[in-house]
């Protein structure tokens, strides 16, 4: 007997379902409170449940998969094309159900809790790096109004420490106290970043896949752990090119009348992991470029 397919539109509080009974062809729609979703699916025969790969999707995929259902995560970009009316929860659930019927739409692999935890470390680190940059820029902007010019990036902190007495002479007491407060804030941010990087390094040492990836030239601790957490079970990907395409590392193309034009990198997919890999490749290739001795990637050990 064919499994009934359910289109599930996720939300914080109220979920929307759309399905067509596999035996009778009857169309069903239902709203469910978040607390009732697991209970509803626990009472059903094993079914096929499709959702957008969005916030909390991996959590619900694990929950429903544990109840014996076949869960499929669909890219939101692909689902959007099937919304044929005004956008609402019911239309979204129907669009998800329609997209699930398309066998050529690539399903996103379900992440384990361990994979999500590692990527959470990366996101937290990225957040604090952004906060550090914003705090430094704000401090530089405030001091500039008093005639104090500091270099950009972290070099500004070193200059500030070396010239603190000279800087204080140009500031009123209130501004000096504000500078002290911001410098203490920056020290706390640095401690948070250091702790997160230490935890990421520990995860790299523990993970077999991350340790193997770390041996590839150009891939450091951040790249190895992020790549391992994103890749998961490599058998989910038909080829390396398909995985590269999911990161936006293959050229976009357009064609008509039998002519195809190859464009720039599509930049779809995960920008964070793509950035790490591109910087890693540059780190390997740059020394050869500066030495003016061009070599192929096979000679650098990348491939």
Task: Sum this structure up briefly.
The chain has 303 residues and is of the alpha/beta class.
Overview of this protein structure:
By secondary structure, this protein is α/β, with parallel strands linked by helices. The protein folds into three domains: 5-100, YqgF/RNase H-like domain (Nucleotidyltransferase, domain 5), CATH 3.30.420.140; 113-207; 221-300, no CATH class. It is 54% helix and 14% strand. It contains 13 helices and seven strands. It has helices at residues 34-42, 57-66, 76-80, 89-100, 113-144, 155-162, 164-169, 173-206, 208-214, 221-231, 240-246, 271-290, 297-300, and strands at residues 5-9, 14-20, 27-33, 48-52, 70-74, 251-256, 259-265. The chain has a five-stranded mixed β-sheet. A two-stranded antiparallel ribbon has the order 6-7. α8 (173-206) packs across α10 (221-231), α9 (208-214) packs across α10 (221-231) and α10 (221-231) crosses α12. The longest helix is centred in the middle third of the chain and has 34 residues, at 173-206. The radius of gyration is 25 Å and the shape is globular. 23% of the residues are buried.
